[in-house]
Amino acid sequence: MEKHGNKPNVAIIGAGGTAGSHITDKLLKKDYSLFLVEKGEGIARLRERGLPSTKLEEAVPESDIVIMAIPDAKIGEVSRNVVPMMKKDAIMILPDPSAAYAGEITLRDDCTFVITHPCHPTLFGEQDTPEARKDFFGGIAKQDIVIALLHGREENFKKAKKVCMEMFGPVINCHRITVEQMVILEPVAAEVVAGSAVSLIREAFDEAVKHGVPKEAARAFMLGHIQILLAILFGEVSHQISTAARIAIESGYNRVLRPDWKEVFKPEVIREIVNEMLHREENT
Q: Is there a contact between 147 and 116 (Cβ–Cβ < 8 Å)?
């Protein structure tokens, strides 16, 4: 395997999976020589799309950039195998901060390690087409991404940033943050807090229907009120929440939420959550 002209070689590990397929589709349109690394059923999925697979031990030593498009819980284990194979000055791009935050990523001083994650299309953002407005993941719709340098050279970080923006494009803004800040955003703010809150909202919808509210009416009412509340609380409109609604919200805090819920942002609690995310299956 050689470079085709001056094209960088990029290995996508897990190229047949959901995230890997998305990244592959994006980078196939760019100026790279791609090595698609898979095993088992993943190889079959690539073949179904008419794409060749390359063995890990052949792809990684030839690659300028290695993208780890694999589940969070596997990243630490796979990195122990992959990183020693990487050539000097290569770049590894990781799609999630959890394993890095937990110290489970194998590092090398002569390589650069970058973490990135999509923000997904924002609720109040403008999109250009009906297709883009229906794209909630990103890739057709415009979105922002976050990126962090875990270890390595600033010059290579800039190269990785370009790849990350192409992986998740079209990208409006690329926000550089730290690994610790990325963990605060996900899993804590986006999944532990917002995910559980949204799940609670869905359960409230189901409970309203169970109590006799017509499903269509409940859906219209709930989704409309969710949007206006978010618009007010995130400063998208000048309206204010009414006094009666504020009293109802305060009552909800006391009756629905635990008073100490912000404990999830404490470093020791974050470490506990991340460890459970990465290792729950091992401990059951």
A: yes
Comparing CA positions, the residue from 211, 209, 228, 230 lying closest to residue 219 is 209
Give CA–CA dist 204/192, Å, rounded. Answer: 18
Q: Kindly state which CATH superfamily the domain 9-177 is placed in.
A: NAD(P)-binding Rossmann-like Domain (3.40.50.720)
The token pair at 257 is 């939420």
For the chain, what are the domain ranges?
9-177, 184-283
What are the strands of the beta sheet with 33-37, ordered from one edge? 33-37, 9-13, 65-68, 91-94, 112-118, 143-151, 171-176
- Beta carbons of 106 and 53 less than 8 angstroms apart: no
For residue 84, cis peptide bond before it (omega within 30 degrees of 0): no
Who contacts 234 (Cβ-Cβ below 8 Å, separation ≥6)? Answer: 124
pLDDT tens-digit map of 136-194: 999 999 999 999 999 999 999 999 999 999 999 999 999 999 999 999 999 999 999 99
Chain-centroid distance, C-alpha 65: 19
The phi, psi pair for 206, rounded to 5°, reads -60, -40
- Cα–Cα separations (whole angstroms), residue 113 to 133, 158, 269: 33, 12, 25
The secondary structure element, H or E, covering residue 205 is: helix 194-210
